């Protein structure tokens, strides 16, 4: 009998909660196969099996709190060897039965690494069906995690012999998705005939093609109708990326979209329930909701406000934007000014660029700037690393590139991790004033707002100036009111006189 115990959870972490058991008593397990998942106040910890065998009993059930080195379960060794052999044989037999014509070796399609602390995903769309020929690196399916979408390419050429995890199924990192039988499949001549008329399929038969659940959910969330989406998947099927592109196009040309969502609501039933539409939250939306609520429950969030006269920044941008774009190939926007101003202020008030770790304060001697971006799937925060050492042009290029990848759903996990401070621009949507919520474990977030002409008293005279309200939400556990106000004042000073940025004043 081998004991399964709670592993080391990290510095200053002494206990965890058993979140999920992936095996039950009597199940056979392999060495290093994931048995359960533990949640601490900082990270999620996976517990692998130390030996091959059979899970004899579970000592700590789901929801229980356990300490470091506490007993989780017991495994009887040896039984898994005989149990796993017939399973492997059955799998091999199933693979060969699914593709008898191939005659070659079978290749498993596995769930790729999903990113730090992400252990599972949902199969959103299969772009191939059993029996289809596939080329190496051709996209087979799309997985949706609580943070990003992950495309799964074919590891080899052949025929898709078996789909193990269907659309809507939840899969674990490293789990098996499908089986490809290798060898002769790619050279099928029959595949050439349907390829001849892809436009006809997408134009005439799109209504008969079942879109993937991820695309359907995205259409429901964004209000984009199926007629607005140009499907690029198999047989004209719409993908989530197609919906994102359609939503972005609709937002860019609001005058061209005559409110298509109002038409289907013409017949109004008397019963309120019949008029409601219930749509399951995406994993991304669930995570956004959970993280924002956790931030409110954990941090002592306080917001302080100021306003900035944008006259000088707007004049500088107007004077040099054409030369800037010609030389650097990037548009000169306001975000680079705000990023530079924040980096400048964070040097003077480092606690706004710090985080709390247990009873320690961790000061960051660098600025990884998170730039909040709204997408059809929800709010994401790509990170511009070492923004404090970047030029205006480098910042603008990085923000443009990250923003495009965010809208297309192509951001990787690594691109959204490690931020030390965040800027959120609600002004692009017309927001005049708001209180942003912290992006944990960060201690500060700056909210930008709409630029609006207002009468201001300048040297005893009333003048019209383009003004913007600024809002700094901060964790009052680490940042005092004086520090928060000082930070905002430094940002205001840098923007009202941009020359201060050049002189580091």
From TrEMBL:
<keyword id="KW-0450">Lipoyl</keyword>
<comment type="function">
    <text>E2 component of the 2-oxoglutarate dehydrogenase (OGDH) complex which catalyzes the second step in the conversion of 2-oxoglutarate to succinyl-CoA and CO(2).</text>
</comment>
<feature type="domain" description="Peripheral subunit-binding (PSBD)">
    <location>
        <begin position="210"/>
        <end position="247"/>
    </location>
</feature>
<dbReference type="InterPro" id="IPR036625">
    <property type="entry name" value="E3-bd_dom_sf"/>
</dbReference>
<feature type="compositionally biased region" description="Low complexity">
    <location>
        <begin position="244"/>
        <end position="271"/>
    </location>
</feature>
<dbReference type="GO" id="GO:0004149">
    <property type="term" value="F:dihydrolipoyllysine-residue succinyltransferase activity"/>
</dbReference>
<dbReference type="InterPro" id="IPR004167">
    <property type="entry name" value="PSBD"/>
</dbReference>
<feature type="compositionally biased region" description="Basic and acidic residues">
    <location>
        <begin position="234"/>
        <end position="243"/>
    </location>
</feature>
<dbReference type="Pfam" id="PF00364">
    <property type="entry name" value="Biotin_lipoyl"/>
</dbReference>
<dbReference type="InterPro" id="IPR000089">
    <property type="entry name" value="Biotin_lipoyl"/>
</dbReference>
<dbReference type="InterPro" id="IPR006255">
    <property type="entry name" value="SucB"/>
</dbReference>
<dbReference type="InterPro" id="IPR050537">
    <property type="entry name" value="2-oxoacid_dehydrogenase"/>
</dbReference>
<dbReference type="Pfam" id="PF02817">
    <property type="entry name" value="E3_binding"/>
</dbReference>
<comment type="pathway">
    <text>Amino-acid degradation; L-lysine degradation via saccharopine pathway; glutaryl-CoA from L-lysine: step 6/6.</text>
</comment>
<protein>
    <recommendedName>
        <fullName>Dihydrolipoyllysine-residue succinyltransferase component of 2-oxoglutarate dehydrogenase complex</fullName>
        <ecNumber>2.3.1.61</ecNumber>
    </recommendedName>
</protein>
<dbReference type="InterPro" id="IPR001078">
    <property type="entry name" value="2-oxoacid_DH_actylTfrase"/>
</dbReference>
<feature type="domain" description="Lipoyl-binding">
    <location>
        <begin position="1"/>
        <end position="76"/>
    </location>
</feature>
<keyword id="KW-0808">Transferase</keyword>
<keyword id="KW-0012">Acyltransferase</keyword>
<feature type="region of interest" description="Disordered">
    <location>
        <begin position="212"/>
        <end position="277"/>
    </location>
</feature>
<keyword id="KW-0816">Tricarboxylic acid cycle</keyword>
<feature type="domain" description="Lipoyl-binding">
    <location>
        <begin position="106"/>
        <end position="181"/>
    </location>
</feature>
<dbReference type="InterPro" id="IPR011053">
    <property type="entry name" value="Single_hybrid_motif"/>
</dbReference>
<dbReference type="Pfam" id="PF00198">
    <property type="entry name" value="2-oxoacid_dh"/>
</dbReference>
<dbReference type="InterPro" id="IPR023213">
    <property type="entry name" value="CAT-like_dom_sf"/>
</dbReference>
<comment type="similarity">
    <text>Belongs to the 2-oxoacid dehydrogenase family.</text>
</comment>
